[in-house]
Design brief:
Blueprint (H helix, E strand, L loop, with lengths): L1 H24 L11 H17 L3 E5 L7 E6 L7 E7 L19 E3 L2 E3 L3 H20 L6 E7 L7 H10 L8 E4 L11 E6 L1 E10 L5 E2 L10 H9 L24 H9 L4 H8 L13 H7 L2 E9 L9 E2 L2 E10 L5 H15 L5 E10 L2 E2 L5 H14 L4 E5 L5 H9 L3 E3 L15 E3 H19 L2
Parallel strand pairs: 3-6, 3-7, 7-17, 8-16
Antiparallel strand pairs: 1-2, 2-6, 4-5, 5-18, 8-15, 9-13, 9-14, 10-12, 11-13
Helix pairs in contact: 1-3, 1-12, 3-12, 4-11, 10-12
This protein binds ligand BES and manganese (II) ion (2 copies).
One manganese (II) ion binds next to loops.
Length: about 450
């Protein structure tokens, strides 16, 4: 009954919902590059006005050295349960620009998908929560207290919200569960709830040698080349034979995959050939050979070079020994590796590997702790039921290889269940060119969240 009502509402409002989302997606709120800081503020304005417009009590929480948080709530009855929705209004940089079929910040609808940077990660998904609440408010059916917290630094480490959640100690953010849609379903028609996320240590290494670029003929030989030295260092991070990370003590705190997890994951449909084709690689030969593909992504740590720079990059040749070379290196952590220890081990290892004749600097850029969430209790069951009702299938419990930095802090500070229920699809291309979000996922997501809130309201 109520399900039919929400579907009718969505049907009626379709164009308006899409128009609103298009406005939001037009704003290039890239948090990783300060040149977009004005656009971040535009996204804050858009989001806070939107929350107000749908009837939420809304405030912008400014921060001295970070991007604002947007907070909104509707407390219908203090004796009722409260759900806190989290989302991030910042997006990844759009490059490489020439790979986009339509420009990243001119949202375009093709074959039932909306294409734009941030479509699935996370503007389209946080919109699901807002629209579900808008529907319930309009139809006078909101029986659950709702709170929203949006941050603008998720893609750059999430420091502002981290400080806020710790300082708040569950006062403003007091709730019975956190609901987050910032991941994908396991497959189309195959909903999932995520109970584990990897953490992260993000670093930058800089190897420096001579005080200036030098002629490689006049000086080459006795001078240690910083680019060669860098390659030598990063070339040692992975053991070729086992695929293991070679940093001493790196695996010390790693929790083994449980037997039930191995069994359940082995039963999930996974077509290795299709998977390889979809990402365009000939083999999945990376990582630890003793683990399955899903195990390697969800529950084993990694060490990856994300970027490498230095020396001559222009056309033609330039015979120099560069003065310096650098690399961005990140490690994905699994329970219960601690970022502090891992960075420590990493820094020592890099210094140990560095050849005589160059200096190395290792800088820590950001950290996030890994999480494992206990999926039990009444509210989780209601979420499961709502998902099953709308998608015709019970959600599978999965882990994910990605990172949402604030989740571990929510879990530790609020002490409530965290429901990571993503409505993206595996081929959405988050962080890639031609990122998209399926409108069908958007609409069915609204239906799911609305059903869930109605069920919680009946508790
Ligand atoms: N939404 C993603 C994380 C994600 C993706 C979780 C897929 C589960 C499934 C998030 O926006 C993201 O990209 N996080 C960054 C965090 C980093 C910059 C600290 C990541 O994982 O690289
Ligand atoms: Mn995200
Ligand atoms: Mn992201």
């Amino acid at each position: 009954m109520s399900s039919k009502k929400v579907r009718e509402w969505i049907d009626q409002k379709k164009d308006k919902i899409i128009d609103d989302l298009v406005e939001f997606l037009k704003i290039p709120s890239v948090s990783t590059d300060p040149k977009y800081s004005g656009d971040i503020m535009n996204a804050v304005k858009f989001l806070s006005s939107h929350c107000k417009a749908i009837g939420l009590d809304t405030k912008v929480i400014e921060s001295d050295d970070g991007y604002p948080l947007v907070y909104a709530e509707k407390i219908v009855d203090p004796n009722k349960k409260t759900i806190l929705f989290y989302g991030h209004y910042d997006v990844q940089p759009p490059d490489p620009l020439d790979e986009w079929e339509s420009p990243p910040f001119s949202p375009s609808i093709r074959d039932g998908n909306i294409y734009a940077r941030g479509a699935t990660d996370d503007k389209g998904q946080l919109f699901i929560h807002l629209k579900a609440v808008e529907y319930l408010l309009e139809s006078n059916d909101l029986q659950t207290n709702v709170k929203f917290i949006f941050e603008g630094e998720e893609e750059s480490g999430g420091e502002t919200i981290e400080a806020f959640v710790i300082q708040d100690q569950g006062k403003l953010l007091a709730c019975d569960a956190v609901f987050i849609s910032d991941s994908a379903m396991y497959a189309p028609g195959y909903p999932s709830v995520v109970y584990g996320l990897r953490g992260m240590v993000y670093t930058e290494i800089r190897v420096s040698g001579p005080s200036n670029d030098l002629h490689s003929g006049v000086f080459g030989g006795p001078v240690v080349n910083p680019a060669n030295a860098l390659a030598l260092i990063i070339g040692k991070f992975i053991d070729e034979e086992s695929g293991k990370v070679t940093i001493p003590n790196f695996y010390e705190e790693v929790k083994d995959i449980e037997e039930w997890e191995r069994k359940e994951w082995a039963q999930l449909p996974f077509d290795e050939k299709k998977y390889k084709e979809s990402i365009g690689v000939p083999e999945l030969a990376g990582g630890e050979k003793d683990y399955s593909i899903l195990e390697r992504i969800w529950a084993r740590p990694t060490c990856d070079v994300n970027g490498i720079f230095g020396g001559y990059q222009g056309v033609g040749g330039k015979t120099i020994i560069p003065a310096w070379a650098g690399a961005k290196v990140s490690m994905r952590l699994v329970p219960w590796q601690t970022p502090e220890n891992i960075f420590n081990y990493f820094e020592h290892y890099v210094r140990y590997l560095a050849p005589v004749g160059v200096n190395v600097d290792v800088e820590l850029l950001s950290v996030a702790r890994p999480v494992l969430i206990n999926l039990e209790g009444e509210i989780f069951r209601l979420a499961e039921n709502a998902i099953e009702e709308v998608w015709g299938r019970k959600p599978v419990k999965v882990r994910e290889g990605g990172t949402i930095p604030i989740v571990s802090t929510f879990f530790e500070t609020l002490g409530v269940p965290i429901l990571l229920v993503g409505f993206g699809l595996p081929d959405d291309g988050l962080h890639s060119p031609n990122e998209k979000f399926s409108l069908n996922q958007l609409f069915k997501g609204i239906e799911t969240v609305s059903e869930f809130l109605v069920a919680v309201g009946n508790l």
